[in-house]
Amino acid sequence: MREKMKAKMQAKDTFNNALTYISAGLGVLILGSILVFVLSKGLKGLNFDLIKSNYWSENYLATVEESYQTNELNDEHSSAQGYYSTKWGIAIDDTLSAKGEKQLEVTYVSPNSPFAHLLNATAGENFEKPLKMHTGYTIEKIDYMTADGTIGLAGKILAQDAKTTIETLDKASTITSVYFKSAGGGIRGSLIATFYLIVISLTISLPIGIASAIYLKEYAGPTKINSLIRQGIETLTGVPSIVYGLMGITVLFPVTQLVGATTTSILLGGLTMAVILLPTIIRSTEEALLVVPKSLRDASLSLGATQSQTIFKVVLPCCINGILTGVLLGIGRVIGESAALIYTMGTFINDNPTILSQGTSLALMIWSFMSGENPNFELASTISIIILAIVLVLNIIVKLIGKRFAKQFV
Amino acid sequence: MKKFFIALISVLLLVGCGTTPSETTETTTEETVETTESAATGNIFVYTRDSSSGTREAFEKAIGLEELTADAIEVSSNGDMITKVASDVNAIGYASLSTDFSNSGATPINFEGVVPSSETVLDGSYGMQRPFSYVTRASGDFGSDDKEAIIAAFVDFLVNSTEGLQVVQAAGGEVDLSKSTPWAELKKNHPIVDQDNSSLTIVTAGSTSVEKTLTAALEAFQPMAGNVQFTINQTGSSDGHKRTLGEEKDSVNAADIGFASRNFKDEEDVSSALSSGVYCLDAVVAIVNAENTAITDLTAEELAGIYSGEIKSWADLGK
Lengths: 410, 319
Hints:
The complex is a heterodimer. By secondary structure, chain A is of the alpha+beta class.
């Protein structure tokens, strides 16, 4: 009888154990498959140029310097990829842009080529200044003239591929104008905007959050009003971020107007994020205050320090670990947030974001081009890798700092 | 026990890694798709766009739909539509003709026996088409004279110039190039383009469908007009008029040029605008999953039947 029961118990135990293993394994499996998906799709797009280049291409319109116009080159073809025009000293190849569109990429420009001696035709400070075609630029359109005076066009806008473009170009005798672009598809602007967003939201929410946590934990008595305040802050955690977004555009927009904002802006996004972060920071600071040993406070008070001195000079420094955890969670939230920011920052990918201009954070940038005509999974995955990497690095840094402070005080 | 589960998890992970690449190779080999004349036989999954979409309006008007089936699944964008239809063999949806369908997993089908193409759209024989319209702010409401002049120049470039129409065409819009004028001539009316305009920003709003053609035109216009800057905030056709002349014209969402992928409605009064009109045509095509090769042509009646919920499965078609 007892044997039977034991066997039954054992079976039950094994089942329970197995359940925990499978559940934990499932979590790992999901994380693993996310990593596999993101890495398999996005890894090949990951390079340093992506981080330092602009999303929008630089658009150039140029004419050819008079002295190079009729230059017969007859250069040897370099080892560059694609089709080469011996007459004009330029090689072009069919490639796909970072945005996933077909393009004519310049793979080689001979130093004597007319394309290395262009004049900027755009009005402004660079008008008629020398301009050079670099490799990696893409040809949009070339206006040319043949020997008998007929005008012709070549390039991507005419739906030509690299081969036809070069063949058409070889018929030309003079080049009237060239419209070309730099590569684009980079995330520099969004990185800067994300950085601004983190700085703005933390500088506002950190002091307020820490101060309210201290009030709630150290000063507040067990009155009804205080429990109402506590309840209110806890409810804030559960409010969907889209509601914060609506609040931001109606309540906080007039605030940003005071400092000169005319549209939705990074400042507005930062203010909204500061509100979203408040409960997170209050809670993690409160939890950190909770674990400071009573003996420390007693020692400080018995040495004649006032309560404020005890809190700010003894208790608070011990909480640095918990506050940093709050900061980390906050930064993670800012990087990952998109719903509230669509309303408050706009969805235009801005290469030169300022605090009062529109811009996109990295997550918003993914949203912005995934909602376009042709969703670009590759670029989205590449940005996801960068977001994951940033979060990982932040995690490690905060852990290291936390460890150093913890040693100092305990 | 522990070791067993760790082993199990790692095996599962490896399987996961192994199948991801092989799946993609299967879908890219077009031969398998072409050789098997596979007809989807299950229930039709109807995909539609959100109610503010100009594409949806154009589609429903063209097929004469009275009431949409309650089973229809709403998607939020053209891109989303392609993704959904490409991942569901029994799906039917619709998208802009300007969408690049190669390798997307969705195929456009004929409408009333007419192949969707530039020629059939421009000569009017392909029925499912819509205009891309634009409207600017009212004259004198741009904040500065320079701004107004640059907007006027851009609209002239977009609508009348050979260069502008070529760019729009390359980006998928259907235009009639024979009626265009070289920019070198039009430019004479717009002396503003010969000065440094890098401090001016053209802000656009309205239809998301116009985004590709509009972006291409703005990018081409930029170096021709003293490096003028632009901000493209496309949210949907209903915002085109609202944010330039309507109730939001002085709000946080204010814009200089609004776009709609339809004609402006009667209640959207454009008479006070500096300029308004149509800059190109776009066609809507019904799309099915690339593996559903049996369906190549549907009439307005059949599409209306599917979208109203009367025709529920692919097998019911043609009965």
